[in-house]
Amino acid sequence: MKIKLSSNSPSETIKIGEKIGRNLNKGDIIGLTGKLGAGKTTIIQGITHGLGVESKQYVRSPSFVLIHQYEGRLPIYHMDLYRLKGKEITELGYEEYIFGNGVCIIEWAEKIDGFLRKEWLHINLEYLPEDNKRKITLEGKGKYEKVIGRFKIRLSKKESN
Ligand SMILES: Nc1ncnc2c1ncn2[C@@H]1O[C@H](COP(=O)(O)OP(=O)(O)OP(=O)(O)O)[C@@H](O)[C@H]1O
Ligand SMILES: [Mg+2]
C-alpha cells in the first residue's frame, strides 16, 4: 500500500515527519530516497521531533560523521549513504544499528540492497514543478504494510481537521 501526500513547504514536510515519528516503534527502519535537496533531511527533522527529540535544530545530513545519534523516546540512528559505495556501506556496520534498540533512519537507502528492500518503511520525496512543492510517497514493505495502514488513518484524520 502506498500513501501519496503533497507538501507545499518545508514546515508541512516537517509536520508529516512528526506524524510518522509519533507512530514509530523500537527496531523500525526507515529508508529515504529522493534527489539532492528533495527534503530527506527536512522530513527527518520532523520524524525525530515526533520521536521526542527536543530541538529540530541540530538534525543535519550526517555527511561527514556517517552516523548521527539522537535521544528521543527511543535512540535514533541517522545515516547518510550518499558518499559511500558498495564495500564502504558494508563496512559501516549498519546492521548493528538496524538490529539495535532504536529507530534507524537511512538517507540514500537505495544504496543498500538485500533485505532492506523487503522490510522497511520507504519514504520517497520528489520535486514538483512549483518551487517548495514536494510529492511524498510512503510505502510499507513487508511487515511495514500494517504500519502504513496506521499512518493512513492518522494522516487522514489530521488532514481533515
Ligand atoms: N515542501 C518542501 N519540503 C521539504 N523541503 C523543502 C520544501 N520546499 C522547499 N524545501 C527546501 O528544500 C531543501 C531540502 O533540503 P534537505 O537537506 O532536506 O534535502 P535532502 O533530500 O536531505 O538533500 P541531500 O540529498 O543533499 O541530503 C531545504 O532547503 C528546504 O528548505
Ligand atoms: Mg540530507
- Estimated structural class: alpha/beta
Name the beta content range.
25-35%
How much is the average pLDDT? 84
Low-confidence sequence ranges? 157-161
> Which CATH-level-2 architecture?
3-Layer(aba) Sandwich
Radius of gyration over all CA atoms, rounded: 15 Å
The helical percent reads 25-40%
Per DSSP E runs of 2 or more residues, the count of β-strands stands at: 7
Bound molecules: adenosine-5'-triphosphate, magnesium ion
The CATH C-level class name: Alpha Beta
Largest sheet: 7 strands, mixed
The gross shape turns out to be globular
Helix run count? 5
- The oligomerization state is single chain
General description of the model:
This protein has a single domain, classed as P-loop containing nucleotide triphosphate hydrolases (Rossmann fold). The protein has 5 helices and 7 strands; from the N terminus they run βαβαββααβββα. It has a 7-stranded mixed β-sheet. Strand 3 and strand 4 form a beta hairpin. Helix 1 crosses helix 2. The C terminus is likely disordered. The structure holds adenosine-5'-triphosphate and magnesium ion.
SSE blueprint and pairings:
Blueprint: E1 2-7, H1 10-22, E2 29-33, H2 40-50, E3 67-71, E4 75-80, H3 86-91, H4 94-98, E5 103-107, E6 121-127, E7 134-140, H5 144-160
Parallel strand pairs: 2-5, 2-6, 4-5
Antiparallel strand pairs: 1-7, 3-4, 6-7
Helix pairs in contact: 1-2
The structure holds adenosine-5'-triphosphate and magnesium ion.
Residues 40-41, 61, 80, 107 line the site of magnesium ion.
